[in-house]
Write a structure and sequence with these properties.
Elements: H1 7-10, E1 16-21, H2 27-42, E2 46-51, E3 68-70, H3 75-84, E4 87-91, H4 102-108, E5 112-117, E6 128-131, H5 138-149, H6 158-171, H7 182-193, H8 198-206, H9 211-224, E7 225-228, E8 233-238, H10 240-245, H11 256-261, E9 268-274, E10 279-285, H12 291-298, E11 302-303, E12 307-312, H13 316-326, H14 331-334
Parallel strand pairs: 1-2, 1-4, 2-3, 4-5, 5-6, 8-9
Antiparallel strand pairs: 7-8, 9-10, 10-12, 11-12
Helix pairs in contact: 2-5, 2-6, 5-6, 6-7, 6-8
């Protein structure tokens, strides 16, 4: 692993750069990616953001979103960009499997690979690494990279600040998760002073859904929420038929699992969704309960202690049953 500060020399002159992030990018993934894009573009670099898949409409307003190319839509163009890039920034993921087919292209590419991330257990594909699990968001680490590693806080303009604020806000649960330290508040205060309009950003992200999404949410809470009081656990299961019934698009299920966690006494919440190729599982927990351990051990996934995800090749019913069968193993922790 090379010394991160030597990136100053690499970035001193214009380079061809690709920024990429994980499958089905969320607010932190796109906020950190476009925040870094808007910084590097000011320095005269030739930069494109390559997203492995589509991402929520409520993030398309981010500054210079037009510079994002979706790999599944334009594979040849994206592969050419990656293979010709002199630097490849990999944001908000630390294993190439997290970017699907694009991971093979990145692995083959000769460009210098820079990972900026806050998830557990990096794979080790990178040449440079700005990483810690103590950051509340990758956008926080991008801020630190610009301000402290590169020493160019002055280049955090309104566009950069807007993107990074979005990433930190979304991945910190609007600043309510335990990872929201005093340092995080100092950073977002600085971003606001540099032009991030916090009220407008919140509105664009959280008050920008379709009527179908709201009706879908109501249906799930009324008909698909199951509370397992003997384990202080709640789960919501969603079939493909239900997704089609409400014309659910990318991003419409985001945050649904958190509603289950708001029930008094609930320590673990699960959202289990049937997708065309697999069943996906999202877990949220409170306190010291290791949601990431369940995902890693049983569902080929991982994540943070209180926010993790995984998947299974089984049917929706099989995955729900498997999740329930695991709970007795963790009963002592769930009932603390």
């Amino acid at each position: 692993m090379q010394d991160l500060t030597s990136l100053k020399d690499l970035l001193a002159y214009p380079k061809h750069i690709v920024i990429t992030t994980h499958h089905k990018p969320d607010g932190d993934a796109m906020g950190s990616s476009l925040g870094l894009y808007n910084y590097l573009a000011q320095k005269g670099h030739h930069v494109r953001v390559v997203a492995p898949t589509d991402y929520p409409i409520f993030l398309h307003w981010l500054p210079n979103n037009s510079e994002v190319i979706i790999y599944t839509d334009k594979k040849e163009e994206c592969e050419k960009l990656v293979l010709e890039a002199e630097l490849i920034f990999c944001l908000d993921f630390n294993a190439l499997s997290r970017i699907n087919e694009l991971g093979n292209v990145v692995r083959q590419a000769g460009g210098v690979k820079v990972m900026i991330d806050h998830h557990l257990e990096p794979e080790g594909f990178d040449d440079y690494r700005h990483w810690t699990i103590n950051a509340c968001a990758t956008a926080q680490l991008v801020y630190d990279f610009i301000a402290n590693v590169m020493g160019e806080k002055g280049l955090i303009n309104k566009d950069v600040a807007t993107c990074l604020y979005t990433g930190i806000m979304t991945d910190s649960g609007s600043f309510r998760f335990p990872s929201t330290t005093p340092e995080v508040h100092h950073i977002v205060a600085d971003l606001i002073s540099r032009g991030a309009e916090n009220a407008k950003i919140h509105q664009m992200v959280y008050d920008n859904f379709s009527e179908n999404r709201l009706r879908f949410l109501g249906h799930c809470l009324l008909n698909n929420l199951e509370v397992l009081t003997e384990y202080n656990t709640a789960l919501i299961s969603v079939s493909q038929d239900l997704l089609r019934q409400y014309s659910i698009s990318t991003g419409d299920t985001e945050g649904l699992v958190n509603y289950a966690l708001t029930i008094n006494g609930i320590k673990l919440a699960a959202l289990i969704i049937e997708r065309p190729d697999r069943v996906k599982l999202s877990l949220r927990s409170t306190g010291d309960f290791p949601a990431n351990e369940i995902c890693k051990k049983y569902f080929d996934g991982g994540g943070h202690r209180n926010a993790a995800g995984g998947h299974s090749e089984g049917s929706l019913e099989q995955v729900v049953d498997r999740f329930k069968s695991i709970l007795p193993e963790y009963k002592s922790l769930l009932l603390i």
